[in-house]
Design goal:
The protein is built from 2 helices and 28 strands. It is mostly beta strands and about 325 residues long. It has 2 domains: about 35 residues; about 270 residues, 3 Solenoid (Pectate Lyase C-like). The chain has a 28-stranded parallel beta sheet that branches. Helix 1 packs across helix 2. It starts with a helix and ends in a 17-residue tail after the last strand.
Length: about 325
């Protein structure tokens, strides 16, 4: 950003009521955003029992291995990395605590981030392109028996191009539990593209049970067989999301609630969402409530057949290569 542009923006921000300190901070943050990351080529990383470590600025190709594998680690930050071309996971987190992944770029991995029996896992402000699967992989993020406080999947971008990828659920919460005071957050993500899987879709909550999750302000366009779902569990909330799906050979339903497991399914909320979904036969199929999760709080507040289309997201949402 040139000096003249900085001065112009500073005057505008102050005129709009932003403090001088706030305006200067905004410009500093903007400069960081525009700063290009330079990468150092690295082999896959496999660490165990490590703590208080930052992994930054690496370009990692996994081939047949996880690009980054953490086992029994804690207080790890992975930032500003490019993680690509692996038949395994981009980042594999096992039995670990307080792991943050931020501002990273994932492409052509079997799955992006997989976390198992871990706590305090944060995947933030990262981009994911063309997850390859095959099933049971194919997610940009999967939490598998993740628990406790501080679990986040926020402000990420996912683009799966049909024919160049084979995703399942973009985001999957399997046997995962937040806490009453700090639910698992899935907030502000953008998901474009999915299929041709007949079971995979956008955001799956309560897979094989789980509790205390909040999926809010996400935008999904053509994410697969379904848009968002609660497949079991308790105290799960789907609030204020936008979901659009055009007719494709694999499309089914925009949003659904259906307990598919032996776990308890109750006290869940689906409210104030905007959905427009067309199934594979060409019929509108915005929602389905199987009725085996008790009363779904807020169901009547959703806008079915909403006035939305594929333009709720840009055609290309990935801006880093």
């Amino acid at each position: 950003m040139t000096i003249s542009k900085k001065i112009t923006y500073l005057i505008i921000l102050v005129f709009l009521g932003v403090s001088a300190y706030g305006a200067l901070k905004f410009l500093a943050d903007a400069s960081k955003i525009n700063h290009k990351v330079s990468y150092t080529v690295s082999k896959p990383i496999n660490i165990e029992g490590v703590h208080d470590k930052v992994i930054s600025g690496l370009d990692i190709t996994g081939s047949g291995k996880d690009c980054i594998k953490l086992t029994h680690c804690y207080n790890i930050t992975i930032k500003n990395c490019r993680i690509r071309f692996s038949k395994a996971n981009g980042v594999n987190i096992l039995f670990s605590k307080n792991v943050t992944i931020t501002n990273c770029y994932f492409e052509n991995t079997a799955a992006g981030v997989y976390a198992y029996k871990s706590e305090g896992i944060k995947v933030i402000n990262s981009q994911f392109k063309n997850m390859q699967g095959p099933f049971p992989k194919g997610q940009i993020v999967q939490f598998d028996e993740v628990h406790g406080n501080g679990n986040r999947v926020n402000f990420n971008k996912c683009q799966n191009i049909l024919g160049l990828s084979h995703p399942e659920d973009a985001i999957n919460m399997y046997k995962t539990n937040g806490t009453p005071n700090d639910p698992v957050q899935i907030i502000g993500n953008q998901i474009r593209g999915g299929g041709p899987s007949k079971i995979g879709g956008g955001i799956m909550l309560g897979d094989n049970g789980g509790s205390y999750m909040l999926a809010k302000d996400n935008i999904l366009v053509d994410p697969g067989q379904y848009g968002m779902a609660i497949a079991g569990g308790t105290n799960i909330r789907i609030i204020n999301n936008k979901i659009f799906g055009r007719q494709q050979s694999f499309t089914n339903v925009g949003i659904y609630v259906w307990n598919q497991h032996k776990s308890v399914c109750a006290l869940n909320t689906v409210s104030n969402n905007k959905i427009r979904w067309t199934d594979s036969t060409g019929k509108a199929n915005d929602s389905w409530n199987n009725g085996n999760c008790g009363k779904v709080i807020g169901w009547e507040t959703n806008i079915w057949a909403a006035n939305i289309n594929a333009n709720i997201l840009p055609v290309n949402i990935i801006n880093q290569q």
